[in-house]
Amino acid sequence: MQTTVNLWPLIGVLVIVIGFVLRFNPMLVVALAALVTGFAAFMPFETILATIGEGFVKTRALPLIILLPLAVIGLLERHGLREHAQNWIAKIRTATVGRLLIFYLFVRELTAALGLTSLGGHPQMVRPLLAPMAEGAAENRYGKLPEKIRYKLLALCAATDNIGLFFGEDIFVAFGAIALMHTFLLGSNIDVEPLHIAVWGIPTAICAFIIHAIRLKRFNSQLERELGGKRLDADHTPIGRQE
Amino acid sequence: MILSIQYLYWLAGIILAITAIMTFADRQHPKRWTTGVFWALFSLVFLVGDLLPPAWVGVGVLVMAVIAGTGGVGLGKHGELPAEKRQASALRLKNKLFIPALAIPLVTVIGSVVVKDLHIGGLPLLDPKNTTFVSLGVGCLVSLALACWLTRDTPVQSMRESRRLTEALGWAMVLPQMLAMLGLLFNDAGVGKAVAHLTTAYINMDFRFVAVTVYVVGMALFTIIMGNGFAAFPVMTGGVGVPILVGQYDANPAVMAAIGMFSGYCGTLMTPMAANFNIVPAALLNLPDKNSVIKAQIPTALSLLAVNIMLLYILM
After folding, report:
1. A162 and A146 in one domain?
2. Global ipTM
3. Is A2 within a domain?
4. From CA A188, how far away is CA A190, in angstroms rounded?
5. What domain range includes position A215?
6. What's the structural domain count of chain A?
7. In 3D, which of A160, A232, A86 has the Cα closest to residue B91?
8. What pLDDT digit, counting tens, does each position of B101-132 carry?
9. A1, A13, A52: best to mutate for the B interface, most B CBs within 10 A
């Protein structure tokens, strides 16, 4: 069979899939996939090394978002930021995990839609503030959480930040993705107003909010069902409790 | 420009170099040398990465991958304050603790929205191509000054804390960059073309609904493989979207593009390849299962993907 497309580089994808499924260390899997893909595309070894190096230097900005806030967040944690976030949420009697996360989802998606994408994020918002608050809200009602539920709660905090960000940012006209779509369509001789692309994202954005909010509400009911019986003792937990 | 992103690379390089030196100096560290070399190599990428021959950097990257893959990146001991002390400090400082934490996003937003177009003496104040990154850097420095002042602690302590969190993250901090590098290499090697060829050559798209499903699911699948919706969009839209949805079925291109990209984002929610959104948070929250954030996202992503098929079918 004759095709003009070289299908060999797909072996790189295969390496990734197998590596992730078998749970090898991801760094090693990615490095291996890079080498295999390079060989499959008939690149000489030196070119592969240079392509890896060049790509790695070109994408240096990525880890900045994670690395730079760590010094401040670490220092504040040393002085009780997470404890205070828990104490603070404990004072709001009506706060539940569901309400807190749905509120965060709403604000995150709305502000991202207005272009304020940096108002959240995992190192600077989820770890120091959102996660301890959600945990505090849950512990306040049900006492200490079983390990499994605690992990699920923390994972949901991170998920909520991602979902709010993703489905908000793409309906902001000046966002890079809109420019990318606009430019690509222009290249195919289709001229669409960037504003139209942004507006037609709104139905999906609303559905994303509804679907995830329903899931958060159901998680809250699950907590209530499984741990609700403990509520009586939890009512008397002192605010200055230890972890 | 006055504040270039280059300064941030140097700053990151210095922070990582300090982390490496502290690790080398830590006699109690179970994996002192390999961990130190790992962070030292990473710091070199920031300090001199653009000056070195790319092939050398490539070798360094492979060495880092081998160290990480053989479990060579470890955790040192850190003198954390006991829980009572942290609680006492929390009760003393109260809401003041929120100020530096909220200053990071606040300064970043002000920088990337308001200060963006500010020129001083004809030069832009912030690197125009990287306003958000530079604003984030400034935000972190402002916030660090505030935090040191409020807690009466020292910048040296903040470096110790930075090292504590960096070591806790371990190789997960480097993974997003590795994957972005792989994405570029996939492009050079023509992986996108091969995938587009497979999806378009073997599926019969004579039915409108099938074509819509192929486009939506293809965007998600391709994003799962590449870890990035931006890489999937040109491939799937060029392969299916423009020729078939617009060309054959007269779709509104704005609807197609908007819903197509969002379908890609559904893929982002389900893939370990999008490490900075899915793997790094699991590491930051100390979750034992590195895939737990993905697992929490899959139900939302799959429901939304089904909704997207219906929306595109009805609206286009």
Report:
1. yes
2. 0.86
3. no
4. 6
5. 64-234
6. 2
7. A86
8. 889 888 988 888 888 788 888 888 888 888 88
9. A52
